[in-house]
Amino acid sequence: MSTRFVYLGPEGTFTEQALRLIPEAADAERVPVRSVPEALDAVRSGEATAAVVPVENSVGGAVAVTLDELAAGSPLVITREVVLPVDFVLGARPGVALAGVRTVAAHPQASAQCRSWLRTALPDAAVTDVLSNSAAAISAADGSFDAAICAPIGAARYGLTVLAEKIADNPDAVTRFLMVTRPAPPPEPTGDDVTSLAVFIAHDRVGALLAVLTEFAVRGVNLTRIESRPTGEQLGVYIFLFDCTGHVAEPRMGEALQGIRRLADRVTFLGSYPRHRFSGGSPVPPPPGQSDADFADAATWLTKIRAGDLS
Amino acid sequence: MSTRFVYLGPEGTFTEQALRLIPEAADAERVPVRSVPEALDAVRSGEATAAVVPVENSVGGAVAVTLDELAAGSPLVITREVVLPVDFVLGARPGVALAGVRTVAAHPQASAQCRSWLRTALPDAAVTDVLSNSAAAISAADGSFDAAICAPIGAARYGLTVLAEKIADNPDAVTRFLMVTRPAPPPEPTGDDVTSLAVFIAHDRVGALLAVLTEFAVRGVNLTRIESRPTGEQLGVYIFLFDCTGHVAEPRMGEALQGIRRLADRVTFLGSYPRHRFSGGSPVPPPPGQSDADFADAATWLTKIRAGDLS
Amino acid sequence: MSTRFVYLGPEGTFTEQALRLIPEAADAERVPVRSVPEALDAVRSGEATAAVVPVENSVGGAVAVTLDELAAGSPLVITREVVLPVDFVLGARPGVALAGVRTVAAHPQASAQCRSWLRTALPDAAVTDVLSNSAAAISAADGSFDAAICAPIGAARYGLTVLAEKIADNPDAVTRFLMVTRPAPPPEPTGDDVTSLAVFIAHDRVGALLAVLTEFAVRGVNLTRIESRPTGEQLGVYIFLFDCTGHVAEPRMGEALQGIRRLADRVTFLGSYPRHRFSGGSPVPPPPGQSDADFADAATWLTKIRAGDLS
Amino acid sequence: MSTRFVYLGPEGTFTEQALRLIPEAADAERVPVRSVPEALDAVRSGEATAAVVPVENSVGGAVAVTLDELAAGSPLVITREVVLPVDFVLGARPGVALAGVRTVAAHPQASAQCRSWLRTALPDAAVTDVLSNSAAAISAADGSFDAAICAPIGAARYGLTVLAEKIADNPDAVTRFLMVTRPAPPPEPTGDDVTSLAVFIAHDRVGALLAVLTEFAVRGVNLTRIESRPTGEQLGVYIFLFDCTGHVAEPRMGEALQGIRRLADRVTFLGSYPRHRFSGGSPVPPPPGQSDADFADAATWLTKIRAGDLS
């Protein structure tokens, strides 16, 4: 049976662009689906090998549903992340010049992200909302609008000329995507990994959150993201979603996870996977006393004192 | 000059429904705008008295942009929150029966939220994406589609008959809206208030977050929401957004805010305002030793020992 | 070679009384020495098998030297504790009646502890300081004084009649003694043990102490004693002495010790040994999530998620 | 009525030496008493203006009783501390040479502190225990012994020649004394003060101690001493004795004390008084964000945001 990847469609959006950066997907069948829940269900049911969905998406606002579906449904694991710069272009049919653009199609959040550029470069253009970055490209290609704000991949796919690139107001904004599969042993540690967790806390007391963070802190496990989400099931129950620096196979992370398992009402392991790094980046070193060597030294010492060797 | 409220449009959505629950807006001019930034800028510039925007919106995904705009732009304050149940209905022109529905218009996130209901009640209907809950209602009203998933206010406004109500899969889901004004003294404490903050932390160490949470915990200030957001400006700088239980005028909150001011790289006060409560709800009492009486007792004691009175 | 126990002398004091409660010492040679350092050095050099010395002594004030010697010298381990009630008696030669007592010999701290009783029962007696509880008994036996405040064992040994017993002002006061040997595997866990540690912290910041306590707290390890001692070696270096509830062989204590090893400048393991319990006492149960079963469950869960089993 | 200082006698010990360093005592009547409780009771009853007693005494082991009496009895306050180096000398009658010393009188803890020196310089001398450093000096002066280990003040008072000075094994050891009065407003802050507290905690959980330390830590209040003492009254109740850096009149300390007052079962304020500093010493600066300027800035900010000024 062939490998099949599903992704949040339609074709020609940033999610497809992210999918194309994943080597395992190169020779796979690639199927766009209409929603994140649909993508994840296709993996759960075995129809798809893996799904690629946005998780921190300054454009599409898909964060909430992805996190909620991962935390609440039957188990899935994240095996890879892909981070893309938010890299909007203005595309138009060949022959259309920037000066001639009077109408622009854009997803509402795309136009919001390019507000300053639009005000400066196209102060008189009428911007019309469409349903996706891809729909914007299509409607420029078919002549419904003079131009479209879209992803580079969308411009290429629908034969648009790029009139302007990097038009998003915030040059550092990025969108983050996850590759999700059925439960499986995590990929090998690379020395710079992310572990994602959903932790359920029964009362909204700050003390409970402090206790969870302390489990990380005492082992030198760093956090790069935290988000609380109310659960509908029961008032007063919160899910905390954490992205931590490290891998479940490492002692520090193993200890921290065990500690959280003991104290939380419930904890869902969402995966350990390599951190996506831009060229030139380097992992943050652990704080003093929290290196792998420090963990190994402490374990050796414990073995010795348990045996009566205090030398 | 008359009072003007702007809100995230279009008309006929949950945001307008939230606006109609605000007494101060009853006699005001009510103007829908295209985006959250536009709404907030209208307040900043003085064109509008106040804005009503979604902040935790399981439907529209508008959370990120609202928080980012409040945290980063020139100062605004939240003066009220409104919480609505996510209360979708299926609306159709008079005369259309549920059994006859073959085509449904819906915002993609609305159809995602009603997935189970659609699968059961309308397994064969074709669902088409439209740009908003309001656009869905309009397109059912004008005959483009047999029915629409929309807000009750949208069904009413466009003359639709409600074929089914409470069709969202999660009966407890809610959407939260904020009323935002230019800086002003906060409303009087009510005994059950929320204080919102944006805290900037320069390194992504869990220790910095622990320190902030500890400032809350030692004063018995509880949290009901926490979210981290990367800032585009600088890699490694995070904004944490907190909703805390209490009011800036109270000693416990005053002490906590001062503590965070001392330790954080930057902290933005976003407002103290009454918690929206459903009928029957009651505020969570502070932990032992953290009541108003305990604070008053401790202050009296300190005054006495400073004066040499140890009785 | 026979077994030899040394103890802080002279004979006839509470320390000898503690020694007599230790089964291993029943058939051993028992040798009083003049000071705690002398007792410990005799063990270090191999001249003695074990030493019995006071550690929390409301009478003799020997705490500091015992702790300092254990923390700083070449390694020794505590293998047992003995706790005695502070149980002073007034002894006199046969024939002397309480009404006839005009002069009393007492160690200064013994008379301090019996101050109220002396004021009531012997308001006119002259109390003279002597060097030890044992010296007091001897000087009553030889007629230098009418009576002596001493330990029951001292009265018995020197043929004194007990004119009054339980004359200490605080009926709950106790003295605690340690049995110390050369490094050896600790005694088996009993389910109610004490682990003693000396932790060196290079700066006198409260943060460092908080960090050490947190290592205990997150594993549900309780403390029954904490004491800070300046080190003479270097200004600003502190030794913290801890008595913790639990045994080094237990997972919770093992993890806590490793954590402290990683963060402290130096940590000296002083032993795991059965808690001395008075009849009727029972160990405090661990807090929620910190039982042995919770630790075992968390370890099993970690093994499963590392293998990709998320069921 | 004249000013009267009582101090732990006898005359000629380190406590008298400490007393002579206190300017207020220069013209006062100075009365030695037999015990710390007697000294403190003389202040409580009004017989004495102030008492000088040892509190961290590597020689006399008087720590426990001083702390217990201050924590438990009717209120007294510490108004000054004096720290003396442990500065033993070997004194003898004029004409006696070191080489001729065959017998030495010493308090047992004094000889313990000079053990190495005795072993090297007087390997064959017989050391006999006496009741105090002062008694040692007297017995050398009257010819009962060839020499005495004593305080410099004792050698001077009893006409002894100093044969050797600084003979204590640990050159950095110090003894600390407190001047105690009836409750009164504390001395003015000097910028380098100590505040002493006794905190009662009803259960021996490490969590309670962590909570108290956190109150200090979040305000940048440092600790220089911590000690736990069981209370006889009730099993499971502990007193923690703290010496903190700072003064009750300062905002940071005021906040911390109020926080502890709220959470502890009971807290006894024992005084704020200037830290005794050796020449050349300088106070440790507060951690980042905890300076007086930081506290003032945070207070100003709070006043502004409460008034609606977010500039």
Automatic annotation (TrEMBL), chains A, B, C, D:
GO terms for biological process: L-phenylalanine biosynthetic process. The record marks T175 as: Essential for prephenate dehydratase activity. Keywords: Amino-acid biosynthesis, Aromatic amino acid biosynthesis, Lyase, Phenylalanine biosynthesis. SUPFAM superfamilies: ACT-like, Periplasmic binding protein-like II. InterPro entries: ACT-like_dom_sf (IPR045865), ACT_dom (IPR002912), Chor_mutase/pphenate_deHydtase (IPR008242), Preph_deHydtase (IPR001086), Preph_deHydtase_CS (IPR018528). PROSITE patterns: ACT, PREPHENATE_DEHYDR_1, PREPHENATE_DEHYDR_2, PREPHENATE_DEHYDR_3. The keyword Protein transport does not apply. GO terms for molecular function: prephenate dehydratase activity. Pathway: Amino-acid biosynthesis; L-phenylalanine biosynthesis; phenylpyruvate from prephenate: step 1/1. GO terms for cellular component: cytoplasm. It holds the Pfam family PDT. Residues 4-182 form the Prephenate dehydratase domain. CDD domains: ACT_CM-PDT, PBP2_Aa-PDT_like. It catalyses: prephenate + H(+) = 3-phenylpyruvate + CO2 + H2O. The lineage of its organism: Bacteria, Bacillati, Actinomycetota, Actinomycetes, Micromonosporales. Residues 197-274 form the ACT domain. It comes from Spirilliplanes yamanashiensis. It comes from the Bacteria. Its EC number is 4.2.1.51. This is Prephenate dehydratase.
